[in-house]
Design goal:
Layout: H1 12-17, E1 27-33, H2 37-43, E2 55-61, E3 64-70, H3 75-78, H4 80-84, E4 88-95, E5 98-105, E6 108-114, E7 117-122, H5 130-136, H6 147-159, H7 165-169, E8 173-176
Antiparallel strand pairs: 1-3, 1-4, 2-3, 2-8, 4-5, 5-6, 6-7
Pfam families: DUF6461
InterPro entries: DUF6461 (IPR045592)
Length: 181
């Protein structure tokens, strides 16, 4: 069952935004279905307007919120139960330490896999949305040239949250997330 139909090309801009000139990517983005930014921050005890060594930006998106970490943070990855309670959440994490995707529904880990190691997937339903994974080229174990944009598109499809450059250009709610690291 194909969800929202997002394509990898729709998220190339976000991938490039968090990739340096040397080709290293530093991105942790969580797509949270149906919740506004303030509620997303509240669930992880982030106070808007605070500053710390680590932080998050919560952007209003079509269908929910996209939470982006900065300062090496991984708030979405460390607080998935809080963020996915009563809803669906997908996180794409990519940096020099690893590249991972996780999908949770109401706190349950549905599927988790490395972007370059799909056969090592885990979760309650590891083949969840397999047609989408196949269409986006994420169901392979080799180097996929557009794995991060494809994973972002899969996060969009799995949650129904669409995040565009227009959404990113708007002001985000930001706050310190040091307590989550």
């Amino acid at each position: 069952m194909l969800m929202s139909g997002a394509a990898a090309g729709e998220y190339e801009w976000l991938y490039q935004e968090f990739t340096d000139g040397a080709g290293d990517t530093w991105l942790c983005a969580s797509f949270v279905q149906g919740l506004p930014p303030r509620e997303v921050l509240h669930r992880i005890d982030v106070v808007p307007g605070t500053v710390g060594d680590f932080g998050v930006e919560a952007y209003a998106a079509d269908g929910g919120t996209v939470l982006i970490d900065y300062g090496w943070g991984t708030s979405g990855g460390t607080a998935p139960g809080l963020l996915s309670s009563g809803t669906t959440m997908a996180t794409v994490f990519a940096n020099i330490k690893g590249d991972d995707f996780s999908l949770l529904i109401d706190g349950d880990p549905i599927t988790e896999f490395g972007l370059y190691g799909y056969s090592y997937r885990s979760g309650e339903v590891p083949e969840h949305l397999l047609p989408d994974l196949h269409e986006l080229g994420l169901d392979r174990d080799d180097f996929t040239e557009n794995a991060v944009p494809a994973a972002l598109a899969f996060a969009s499809r799995a949650t129904g949250v669409r995040f565009s450059q227009r959404n990113y250009a708007r002001d985000a709610l930001t706050g310190a997330s040091d307590h989550l690291q």
